[in-house]
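Marked as duplicate of an earlier ticket. Keeping the data here for the record.
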Amino acid sequence: MTRKNTVCLWYEGGAVEAANFYAKTFPDSTVGTIHRAPGDYPDGKQGDVLLVEFTVAGIPCIGLNVGPQFKHSEAFSFQIATDDQAETDRLWNAIVGNGGQESVCGWCKDRWGLSWQITPRAVTEAMADPDRAVAKRVFDAVMTMGKIDVAAIEAARRGGKS
């Protein structure tokens, strides 16, 4: 690798499976080189997959298979901007439907414990509205949601009027 900055994600195992899932789920995502351990290590043996290089939505990553010592937390997440409800549903359902779990305000976790924010652009745009009352209505609506409902966000932006 020649990049100066790459996100390194710690996996208890399954880094290749995770990378393959991300590559088939998110646009601009690929699986690159798979590196095997040249010798035994505390949670693995020589020849085991030690790390996998992959890209998620254009972001270079390394998945490191090194054991259960550290877990993913909400302190790190990928935020994926979606264009409409169909894309929001597809990505959310892919993550949750593959052994993940729902959370609140557009957040969910994949089966490996990595957090994702599936955020429609409508939310980001409305939260940046110079009319702070609009931003507050949208914020309040988001706070009641798991998966984001774009129609409800647009209604909140208009003041609750259809």
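See parent ticket for discussion. The chain has a mean pLDDT of 94.
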